[in-house]
Amino acid sequence: MPPKSLVLLFHAVGTPAETGYKDAVSVDALNRALDWLQTNYQVVPLDRLAEERRADRSIAGLAALTFDDNHRSIAEIALPLAVARGLPATWFLMTDPLFGRPYWRRQVSALIAAGQEEAFRAYLAERAPDLLRQLRPGRLYKDSKDPSRVSPDAVAAQLAAFRGGLDDGAGFVTPGEVAALALPGLALGNHSRRHLVMAGLSPDRQREEVAAAAETLSSFPQQRSRLFAVPFGGPETYDAATLDAVAAAGLSGLAVTTSGLAAADDVSGHPLLSADSALVRSLPAALGGLAAPPMS
Q: What is the CA radius of gyration of the chain?
């Protein structure tokens, strides 16, 4: 049986090779997921789901649709498919990559795909040996986002310096493309400025990450969500300072993630969060490749 309430999260439409996202879904899979969602739930804006929960009203039977990051396939494929069904959606954007600035996770993926991990390690051996010691051979993808091992600021800075011509920004939308999205039911949300691991940053840097993104998003004409989508979204990726940064930016709560299918109001894996401070989002892989038939 599906959860009584649900929030689905997607990153890109296409293949992993085309998009740079391991959890990218095909057009056919996305269509099936949207049909499944519409068949099993009343799909409402994410912020309404949060408001109902904060008011201690039942959210059983309600669901929301969300997208993270800046891939152009969301604007060109996913959102039009949602609009055609009359489904509202919230798109959480990173603001630095809107202006062509490097998205460090794409740099990590591109570096590994290009077989340049050893070259990067040699580069670090000369310029940042302390950082190199925290990045285990063959574990760059995982270790580089582990705030208990490394500073996300330091990793991003070294990647930006190393870049080596890697095309890390291909396929991302521009501010003009976002501003032109006159789609009913679309809300834009704050996914931080650079998508760093928040728990690895000082309280001041966390406030800056959220506030700078909020300022950029305020220039767009679309409605804005009052939730903050935590980069990476797991319980180890944020801390108490993140909650303070979100409140200081005038936002009302957090959107966190789970790798399995879970109810939106199940925050049992997130001990920092109170019962009304967050919604849990499920990644598409939680639906078994999105091939599952509708469930009643």
A: 19
Q: What tokens does 225 get?
A: 């969500």
Q: Find all residues with CB under 8 Å of 58, minimum gap 6, and list them.
A: 52
pTM over 0.90: yes
Burial class (CB in 10 A: 0-12, 13-18, 19+), 91: buried
Distance in angstroms (rounded) separating the CA atoms of residues 149 and 152: 9
- Which residues on neighbouring strands pair with residue 13, listed in sequence order? 25
Which tokens sit at 224? 């804005």
pLDDT value, residue 120: 94
Extract the tokens encoding 68.
Answer: 């993270």
What would the pLDDT profile of 88-120 be if each residue is shown by its tens digit?
Answer: 999 999 999 999 888 999 889 888 988 999 999
**Cα–Cα dist 107/163, whole Å:** 7
What is the CA angle 28-23-197, rounded to 5?
150
CB 29 within 8 A of CB 67: no
Spatial separation of the C-alpha atoms in residues 206 and 202, rounded to whole Å: 6
